[in-house]
Amino acid sequence: MPLSPLTPADPQRLGGYWLAGRLGAGGQGVVYEAYGEEGERVAVKVPRVDDASSRARLAKEATAARRVASFCTARVVEARTDLPEPFIVSEYVAGPNLRQVIGQAGPYRGDLLLRLAIGVATALTAIHRAGIVHRDMKPDNIILGPDGPRVIDFGVARQVGLTGSTTGPIVGTPNYMAPELFAGHEATPAADVWAFGLTVLFAATGRDALPGLEPFAAVARVLDFRPDLRVLDGTLREAVAGALARDPLARPSARELLLSLLDEVTGVASGGDEDLLPAGGSVAAMLRPPAGAGGGEPDLGTLAEELYQDLSEGERTVAPEVFLRMVAAAEDSEESIRHVPREELPDLTTGGPASSLLDVYGAAGLIVEADATYTLAHPALIHAWPRLREWLAEDRAGLPVHRRLTEAARAWDRLGRKSGDLLHGSGLDRALRWAAAERRNVMLIPLERDYLDASAALVRRTSRRRGVLAATLAVLLVLTVAGGGLAEYLRRVAARERDDSGARSLALRAADLRETDPRLAMLMSVAAWRLAPGLPQSLGALYDARSQVMTDSFADPAATAATVYDLSADGRTLVTVRDGQATLWDVRAHRELRRFTGVSRTARKAALRSDGKVLAVQDDTGVRLWDVATGAPQGDAFGPGTSPYPQELEFGPSGRLLAIPEADGHTRWWDAGRRQRLRTGSGAGVDAVDTDGTLGVVASGGSGRAELWDLRSGRRLKAGWLPLKKDVTDVRFAEDGRTIAVTRRVDADMTAPLVPGSPNSPVRRDGVMLLMRSARSGAPLPGDGAGPVADAVAFGRHDGLVGTWENADLVVLRSRDSRVVVARRLGVQIKRLRFDPDGRSVRVLTVLGTVLTLDVASLLDRPVPPSASTLATALLGPGGRVLARADVGTVWLWDVRRARQIGQPIHVTQGFLPPKLAFSADGGRLAIGAAPRTGGRPGPAAAGASAAGSGGGGAPPPAGVTLVETAHGTVLTSFLLADRRAAAVRELAFAPDGATLAVAPDEPPAVPIEVWDLRRRQARSAQGVIGAVGMAYRPDGGLLVAGTSPEPKLVDPATLTPVRRPGGTWSLDIGAFAFSPDARKVAITSLAARRLSIWDANFTGPSGRAFPETPAGGWAPVWSPDGRLIATVEAGGGVRLWDETTREPLGHIVEALVADERQITLAFGPDGRTLVTATQDGVLRTHELDADRVAAAVCRRAGGPPSSEEWPRNVTEVAASDVCPDQASTH
Predict the structure, then answer these.
(1) What is the pTM of this model?
(2) 3.20.20.100, 2.130.10.10, 3.30.70.20, 1.20.58.760: which CATH number matches 863-1041?
(3) How far is the CA of 806 from the CAs of 298, 699, 878, 1132, in angstroms?
(4) N or C terminus: fewer CB in 10 A for the chain?
(5) How far is CA 528 from the centre of its chain?
(6) Which of 93-97, 135-139, 784-788, 927-931 has the lowest mean pLDDT?
(7) 736 near 799, Cβ under 8 Å?
């Protein structure tokens, strides 16, 4: 709904709600968008009340409206009808109304129309159940929100001035009013049902069944109305026909409508309201507004914060100052907005950051300028924007002092700066105290400083000093004036702000350099942290530097556009050729190794032999070899001259064979020693060859299938598995000659994005598949069929990794399981891909001649235990002390600190998935829940099952739970669930005392949760509560969350009865959650939004502002032991740290090598100084969080401190010697 500005007659606030603007206005009142004290967005209606009777009616209807269950309705939050200006507060539903959606996207059909009808019927059922009539049901009062349709504006009638033949005023919109209302009859629920029918018809046709008319004209049309229902089918047609019956007694009730419509979808034709309303809400929730429908304007706080995130560092520095000066506050009153003269704002006349900040927020409509003053366009921004709310809270006590100081200084200056207008006594005492010690976000402008200095100087002159001044004033005078204390304080503040600003700038610059100059980015990150250790941005930059995948970048400093490049087979030596000179560089040390002249001045391609002793150079005349040690040529030129195509010159692993680009755009292999082109028995050139030159592949020239040849015998080998030549993009033999990799094009509909959901994600428009075969037999090998991949291919790490690339896209697969382990889009096109022999690095030579180094050391980590299958899952216990690994039928325990297995593997009843796992709060116990299975023998988790229930061919045996003592891996006990219908366990959760276990049965899914007293082996059933993924107890034991699908299912642990949230069903979207250690807060990640938020531990509402949104989203939040930090998992297995106090990101602890969805389990160490991670395939890692140790590790990664010569050209804020003071440089 569009927001109109407040008028001068509108209040700034009503009760505890600050107004943002008008959502609508009419003869019967005004509706405002507003925000509560905690920033919650609401709609506030101020109805017109003419007399005592209308006020009484309003109070009665408002009370009834608050009883409406929030199923497909906007919940009424508060109603104040006792005030001179009454108002009603309801939940704000963001989204377009039905009329807007239909007008933009066209009429609804089929399933969409049915879901809309079910949503409206659900809302009317809830409204009528509360004993009220909506009176104004129409498309304009149905909002399509993110959780489905919501009916708004109920319970507070609009009056339309129609009298005459009626007995009183008519309430509603004429063309949606029922016939009986025009006869003066009282509105009943049947009138809403009539409007329901017309609303569904509107949605189905795109037009009002009765066009909008003046009240008198509407009477005749409504009384003579005959609906055309041909556009509707089946049950929906019958429902609308009944709803539009002329006799109100013949119309079905909203509940009857809902039942009939639900029967069409779910087959449920009966049921109580407790089940009916949730069922209707569930079905309707799937109806979302179409993309681009509009109406979902962000709240003021989100808009302001998004603008803030895009500000420069200078603009962020002055932002608190600018916004707080627009807030007026007195000791005995609430805040209000004020108009700020231009001269009050810092550096406005010089075009500084304050000026550009005002431009940014002015263009967004959040700040307005009038008569050379600036003010907030929306008073509600004071509370809607959490960041401004925090600034205000920090300076609230001092704002009245500052306002008096500002006004007094302006008056002093305006009247000629007379002594009589200066501060003295307690007024000066209070102002100095505030200026010296209490202000946080407000700086003094020159006029205010001059005023304070002059006031203090006057006190010194007029005091006779026969005694000391009043103690407080004397101390402040010494601190702020006589001893230069005010100036010193301001200098300290300025120095702190300068350091913070410098640190933020370094952190931002480091972020920009991580891909292009990784080493400088790492050192800048350390410098930022040295400058401002307590700043979230600098600490985040430090963590990012420790985890960044790109670790180095090197280029020939004297390279030109004519320079030719090659990277050695091990990726450690860069060769550059230009102007007849060849230079070899040590990539890791960034230093020159060897230089010689005499090579061709028209060189176009170059290749270094794998032993580094011979350089091949191709120019227009052919290829010539050079001895690197002596710089002397080896023989005459041979082979073709330079090709206009981008194919590269390349030596084979043995150094004897050389691939030379030819004029047809393909690369063919030559015997470099003999200067002979390799040929098959048919005389064709060879596109790929094994290390010793025995096998060759012809993949170009002519049509048909690619060919495999024995080059020694000249015989073609059978290789029907090879693709057609036209589909081959690259062929490569592994170094051992036994494996051949082929990349081939496939149909586009067989492909998908390489890595979805990341700005660094390669996205392919065509499809390329990898074939991995035995070179001789053609038998498929691990990795065969993987894809989509990129065009070019290379082997690495003893042939265990296969790299592919195309343009700027890099994809590395692990051949043993065909899994993509690296997938990144680099900022520049790739020319060569090399695997370092140590397996810890991948190096990329770009077309610009830069060598980029990627840290892939994590790929060397082995899973624990190594014998688990690809289905296995992992779960870390509290404190990260124990890792539980579950495979199909088996669970292992692993001691993280000692790096050894605990006890023997625990065998449980085998299913087709791993069993569910849950640790007790102290980590001493592990519960194992039966996995889904189709029958079989009972194991420990099903001890006591009857033989009849465990047969291999019958129904699955009853589900059970096994308890294990984690110190030694000993099975303590096993038991079957009380409800023997359950064939599996969906979720488990220990109570904080470890003596109670909540179990969510599965298969069938409608079995209620069971809460087991483990000491007595007794279970209680929570009737009506169906468990779901995400079950957990609050740390104080006072609440059980029985799952998060579709929203938190809250249960009272004492009574096992549901606990209703104030927001009602469907009002909170949760992907994952975690309670804080003190049980006062809960961290929530949303399924839809890519951001983390904090709510109170009862899930009643958000606590403070939300965290910034991140492109990769967040999942599985985990709190540090002290509650200061939160770790979340991002797409691809990245792990990000957050500062809960400032709600700022603290960088990545793990940067994902890929960007698809990867599951990972997290746990902070017992002291919070480490973070333990485990992937679902069992790779366990411990990450240091202590900033001093992290800084030392980053310095080591960067090769030690920066050089004193180069550093000042990039950084002036921190000396080179102070960045890594205890380390020596390796560059």
Answers:
(1) 0.62
(2) 2.130.10.10
(3) 39, 19, 44, 21
(4) C
(5) 25
(6) 784-788
(7) yes
